[in-house]
Amino acid sequence: MTTCGRVVVLDYGAGNVRSVVKALEHEGADVVFSSDPAVARQAGRLVLPGQGHFGQCIGSLEEGGLADAIREVVADERPFLGICVGMQLLYEGSEEAPGVPGLGLLPGLVRRIPTELHLPHVGWNGVAFSDQAVVDPLLAGFNASEPRYFYHVHSYAQLDVENCQVLGVCRYDVPFASVVGHGRVWGAQFHPEKSQEWGLKLLRNFARL
Amino acid sequence: MSLAKRIIPCLDVKDGRVVKGINFLDLRDAGDPVEQAVRYDEQKADELIFLDITASHEGRASMLDAIRRTADSIFIPFTVGGGVRSVEDFIAILNAGADKVGVNTAALNDPELVARAADRFGSQCVVVAVDARRVRVGGEARWEVYTHGGRNPAGVDALEWSQRVERLGAGEILLTSMDTDGTRAGYDLELIRTISDVVSIPVIASGGAGKLSHLDEALTSGAHAVLAASIFHFGEITVPEARNYLAERGHEVRR
């Protein structure tokens, strides 16, 4: 694989993301794990993992210069994937950190899941894909008639599932966006690296875009 | 759709080696936790639990190495429990690549450990193992919490303790009946029902699985997940067989 195909996974202190790197390597990707904005700018593909608090995550990205690197890669239409909080950071903001702007690459706000059920929502939950979603290259091999299970861990989510950027919908008392995509920017609310065959398939698709 | 019920094989690991594990004839090294974990990943287990029964300091280092190598090789969540004493132990295990950490004795000695760990790592990382043994008071059943593999009574009621660890921030309860553990005669369904009725966090049923119908009974009694060791290790039942059976019985399982 050439360096133009190289996947850079951003290291910004957001939890244990070694498994993201390992899963991408398992799928044959050439992966670099880096906190260096210069390395991020050179990425063929960029992955933004995330665990923890929205406000802290965006703070680290802005301070370390990685937020600007992300904007540059996205403006250049190189593939970008946000995972879990990394997906939430794509939006304009989150109820988890009121008033703190996100990356603003997708319109809308992330909200706390309005439910009486236990939060965080943890576990394997089914995601349904629309007819239009399964033609998206990230979802090559997925079918609209076959929901797939992915491992979710979160208390906040994008609840507007009518938006055309929503590719996969999951439900935990209320529906929420579990996979989103707009141009060359994608997000997964679940952890593909912990979601076995279908999670790995999604990462493989991403690595081959 | 909703959250899928989980099937969780458990491996006992000592000094970084599996002591009670799967019995695949073609394994090159039956004692290697990584090789066994990969087999369960291939069988599409939903999660995996390593129970560390190491006593020595050197053994702990081997365990962390085994966790690290396992985390690099499987793509499902996995929990490590056994001998966890402090937030520092949580850090070491999570940094090695485990997704969740199980605590029992340390939480009984210092319940605030549950809160500190949940604050720092999120409640989804904190599994409280409740080892319960049935005692009879009058005609009514109750269960007492035990430590040290069921040898020492903690002087705590299992129902009250489960509620308390939920309030402290536990993400789930690994509920083992010390009466049924190892018997293969079925889970203690009354215990499962009693505890899952009073907490909203998931309860993992453990202790006593001997055949497929036991898994069904535990889920019907309110468990969110079923843990089993020997039935999977000896290959009597494979994870896919369990999954198909539970789906036929109307349980939502991962497809």
Q: How would you characterize the overall build of this protein?
A:
The complex is a heterodimer of chains A (209) and B (255). With 209 residues, chain A is α/β, with parallel strands linked by helices. Chain A has a single domain (3-207), classed as Class I glutamine amidotransferase (GATase) domain (Rossmann fold), CATH 3.40.50.880. Chain A contains 6 helices and 12 strands. In chain A, strand 1, helix 1 (18-26) and strand 2 (31-34) form a beta-alpha-beta unit. The longest helix of chain A has 12 residues, at 196-207. With 255 residues, chain B is of the alpha/beta class. Chain B has a single domain, classed as Aldolase class I (TIM Barrel, Alpha-Beta Barrel), CATH 3.20.20. Chain B has helices at residues 33-42, 57-71, 87-95, 105-109, 112-121, 158-168, 189-198, 212-220, 230-233, 239-248; strands at 6-14, 17-20, 48-52, 78-81, 100-103, 126-137, 140-147, 152-157, 172-177, 203-206, 225-228. Chain B has an 8-stranded parallel β-barrel, surrounded by 8 helices. In chain B, helix 1 packs parallel to helix 2. The model of chain B has no long low-confidence stretch (mean pLDDT 92). The chains are: A alpha/beta (209), B alpha/beta (255).
